[in-house]
Amino acid sequence: MNWQVITPLIIFLVLIFIVGFWASKQMNKSNSFLQEYFLGGRELGGFILAMTMMATYGSASSFIGGPGVAYTQGLGWVLLAMSQVVTGYFVLMVLGKKFAITARKYQAITLIDFLKERYKSKWVVLLSAFSIIIFLFSAMAAQWVGGARLIESLTGLSYSSALFIFAISVMVYVIIGGFRAVALTDAVQGVIMFIGTLILLVAVIIAGGGIPNIINDLIAENPNLISPYGFDRGLTPLYVSSFWVLVGVGVVGLPQVTVRAMSYKNSKAMHRAIIIGTIVVGFIMLGMHLIGVFARPILPGIEVGDKVMPLIALEVLPPWLAGVVLAAPMAAIMSTVDSLLLLVSSAVVKDVYINYIKPDAEENTIKKMSFGVTTILGILVFLMALSPPDLIIWLNLFSFGGLEAAFIWPVVLGLYWGKGNKFGAISSMVIGIGSYIIFHLYYPNLFGMHTVVLPVILSLISFIIVSILTSNKIKEEADLQY
């Protein structure tokens, strides 16, 4: 075992645990366990908000899977990945102040709380909770696989032992600290991700003999590696532009990102978060994917894409510095998985148990339920991650697409279109989820576009048509109530 590499990682984990324990003390002082545990008391400032959004979005895909695909595809994948730069800006500009004000008015703690109050429908709530639980399980499994593979590469431990260490590390601080622990550790992790990316990018460029030299090596191997179309010219302009729906526009519909747009302190914090978030996401996405491509001439012949990042760090850096830098992907993975774990837990406890099973549950019971459900979910994901797929990015993108197809229009049109109603929202979710699964399984990349595009279009059409057709029924229901 290489202790020079592992020691900085252990220091990083200890730091994260200290933040988790501090957050748990804050939670004990709070008057509302639910608001504190799942939303951090709505007290996030601009810097923390920017870093928690970036860290939640920047995941195992960005730091392990993405560079692995860039290693294979070349600079075309870097271009495609850069479409994510405007993600944070886009989410906060679209949802922004209106979403935060409406969420406070509804006293919403979760995204589903917002949908419940907006549409007044049990079926919207249950469909939302079902979507979050199913698709986020895939996303969580992807992150846990990424974390375990990283520890496996560094320590030489078996995959199962590495997965166990990763699972225990994440579950301890999420269970004790809740959202505040997650947001604060995200901020620490975001800083580590930024610094780690910078150090590794510079080291890879130096090891490759400079950028011109690396480009010449790539051209000598395959000129397509420096084209926008990928190593086999499979990245067509239509596919690249449609991919932006998945990682740009569609991110507005991701519950783990949306909930952060509820949690900021004031509009000054939000504006600050937009600027900081866009710059940091841009730098990290560009840096990590360039590292993947530039690693190809230095370490040719890596067969498992997910291993490119740890192997190139160990190749071009002294062991102790590789340990510091590899804390960055570990931070990215932990920051995403902790948010997903908390989100699925809130869907079960807040949205199903309190809303429909025991609305008069006492605070102490809710507290025990929240800790218990988070623990059980962690164990289930651990079991799912025991048989991992080869490339985690595809598992992660599957869950992204499913959630976006389910939530984007009920959230966005729920905010900005007064005529949108519960029937429109239900049809949009059913059509979005159903068509996404069918296209994903039987007609992937239909017409050369990414699979998520058609379900997002179909769910929009369905939302608008059904809302218009059922407007009289909604009016009749409202008249009956009054």
UniProtKB/TrEMBL annotation:
Main location: membrane
Membrane topology per record: Multi-pass membrane protein
Highest taxon listed in the record's lineage: Bacteria
Subcellular location(s) per record: Membrane
InterPro entries attached to this UniProt entry: Na/Glc_symporter_sf, Na/pantothenate_symporter, Na/solute_symporter, Na/solute_symporter_CS, Sodium:Solute_Symporter
A GO biological process held by the record: sodium ion export across plasma membrane
Name of one Pfam family that matches: SSF
Residues annotated as transmembrane: 6-23, 44-64, 76-95, 123-145, 157-179, 191-215, 235-254, 274-299, 319-349, 369-386, 392-416, 423-443, 449-469
GO molecular function: pantothenate transmembrane transporter activity; sodium ion transmembrane transporter activity
Alphabetical keyword list: Cell membrane, Membrane, Transmembrane, Transmembrane helix, Transport
One GO CC term, this protein: plasma membrane
The family this protein is said to belong to: Belongs to the sodium:solute symporter (SSF) (TC 2.A.21) family.
Record protein name field: Sodium/panthothenate symporter
Organism in which the protein naturally occurs: Cytobacillus dafuensis
